[in-house]
Amino acid sequence: ATDGTEKVERLRHTPTGNEIASATIHSSIPMHPSWNEPPLDGCFDDQGRLVLSRLTPERFKRLSPTHRKALMEILARTQVEVSTTSANGRSGRGRANGATALAAVMWASGDSQAFAQAFAASPAQVLPHLSGGGARVLTAENMALILREMASSGGKLEPPELDALGSLVQKYLEHHAGKDPQRARAAMEQLMRAVASSGLEATPANAGIVTGVVIAGMLKHFSAIEASDSERNNIVNGVADGIAAVAGSIPPWGPAVAVGVIGLRTLFNSGFKPRDYSEVASRMQGAIQLDWLQGQNVPPGWSRDDIQDALHWIQTTILNNGQR
């Protein structure tokens, strides 16, 4: 058998058109001496500064999720000098946010795993790279990798990160499904299977976040494609049927996400038109809570406290995607 990580390691992309095909960061930044050890020990100059041009995708991938997140947080607060050349030959040089610039290096390398890990470490700063054709790196395996990385990187989740995850699901659906209900169903089935095989720890919090970003991502997708009421209902019905079909084989992800999407289907099929994310979050909280507290589709082994923990994360994730 091949696990999700091994699948991702074989995936590469080729920059095309106006996408960045080469990127070099010309800045060096002071870092605590503790960073000057493998795999970054070859990236420092004699003054103890991190030379960002030496930070290759291979070195970046060898960092732990926690260290990748810490590094990208430092870079997100730093302006760097970067030069880029697009696949169609256009060149430029200027100042940029360090996290965004490093993600450009990962994108230009064609290493989809390194780019996905850069996104997981700094979603809000990397999301702009997923415009247009960039969304093609969002395979189900890469999506699952991003979710696992974010969950295992430690530290506190911030509202922009939950918002970016919802947008990530929206771009995944936009790229793989558009307005086609059958393609939406297939895409979400693939995503759920990839999450189940990714090694993402099956905690109630993680299950709540995954459920919340799926729901928020679908709402964002409907807005992005300007779906009509009938198109929206058809997509929700297709996704709900697909997730329900695989739910039993991938606990707890299947049962957790299925109860949320089925609840969303019930709302949409009743003629509900969400006015804002707060109303969606409130209604979803009520629908899922009613199901779980009556013992329906509860993930195996969950206690009453586990249920409440997951419910709070679902609501929190949806609400943080509605901040505009």
Secondary-structure topology with pairs:
Layout: H1 4-9, E1 20-25, E2 28-30, E3 49-51, H2 57-62, H3 65-76, E4 79-86, E5 91-97, H4 98-109, H5 112-121, H6 123-126, H7 140-152, H8 159-176, H9 181-197, H10 204-224, H11 229-247, H12 253-269, H13 277-293, H14 304-321
Antiparallel strand pairs: 1-4, 2-3, 4-5
Describe the structure concisely:
Helices cover 59% and strands 8% of the residues. It is mainly alpha-helical and 324 residues long. A 3-stranded antiparallel beta sheet has the order 1-4-5, covered by helices on one side. A two-stranded antiparallel sheet has the order 2-3.
| Portion in helices | 55-70%
What is the terminal-to-terminal distance? 43 Å
| Count of helix runs | 14
Number of DSSP-assigned strands: 5
Give helix and strand order, one letter per element, not per position.
HEEEHHEEHHHHHHHHHHH
What is the CA-based Rg, rounded? Answer: 20 Å
Largest sheet: 3 strands, antiparallel
| Beta-strand content | 5-15%
- Backbone shape: globular
Q: How confident is the prediction overall: mean pLDDT?
A: 88
Order of the strands making up the biggest sheet: 1-4-5
Structural class by helix and strand composition: mainly alpha
Low-pLDDT runs:
1-9
